[in-house]
Write a structure and sequence with these properties.
The protein is of the alpha/beta class. The chain contains nine helices and ten strands.
């Protein structure tokens, strides 16, 4: 589970995140929507302990990310907008390196290839250098690393930005597979369609606060878009 308790981050007297309360249990995909500067990426960075909170807590399966960052990261996987891999290594070699680094366990080639297949990467691509990979292929290696790590929670920051519609749809299917594995997924995105497609809940952020939360089963894409626009207009008018 991912949990924020009155999570706050203040820069030069201005709140980037303002007393955020949020729970993402296992088996849920929570999508954070909002304009740039709303606090979405700040939330992710606090769970990763890339920055420290001004007050409040970011908890990963009950572990405080600021108080015990190594223990919290052990439970987490993170896929940023661009997955950073070693271009001179193949996909399977990257997976071997990062999975060994994160777990201390060396896996055999067959097991590594099975993880990459599970993440949707074809065997031929797995044996090629990552320098020639598309963004979507890099994302699949990132998913395989999360599977190898047996992560309990996954953080995603604009994972489908720049992907073509087919690759984005395939990525959404992979996220659904992780949800079914009971992983807690927190995804930052600007894509309302993606949020509706693979999120179980959607939160709209404005000025560091969670302005509204929707169950995706209870709203359609048009309703979500209208709510987003209404909240954005209210913020501009305030």
């Amino acid at each position: 589970m991912l949990e924020a308790r009155a999570l706050t981050k203040i820069y030069q007297g201005a709140p980037a995140l303002d007393k955020l309360d949020l729970q993402v249990p296992g088996g849920e995909v929570f999508c954070l929507l909002g304009p740039n500067g709303a606090g979405k990426t700040t939330t992710v960075n606090l769970f990763l302990n890339f920055i420290t909170p001004t007050s409040g807590q970011a908890l990963v399966c009950g572990v405080d990310a600021a108080a015990a960052p190594l223990a919290a990261r052990h439970l987490l996987a993170y896929i940023p907008e661009t997955v950073m891999l070693y271009g001179n290594l193949t996909g399977v070699e990257n997976l071997e390196y990062f999975s060994t680094l994160s777990t201390g366990r060396r896996r055999g080639r067959q097991e590594l290839m099975a993880l990459l297949r599970e993440a949707g990467l074809q065997e031929e691509a797995a044996n090629r250098r990552v320098a020639g990979y598309s963004k979507g292929m890099r994302q699949k290696v990132g998913i395989a690393i999360a599977l190898a790590k047996d992560a309990k929670a996954l953080l995603l920051d604009e994972p489908t930005s720049g992907l073509d519609p087919l690759a984005a749809n395939e990525f959404a299917r992979l996220i659904e597979d992780l949800r079914r594995r009971n992983m807690a997924v927190l995804m930052v995105t600007h894509d309302l369609f993606l949020a509706k497609q693979c999120g179980t809940r959607v939160g709209i952020m404005q000025r560091g606060r969670l302005a509204a939360v929707f169950n995706t089963d209870d709203t359609d894409h048009l309703g979500l878009e209208r709510a987003y626009l209404d909240i954005s207009r209210q913020a501009v008018a305030a």
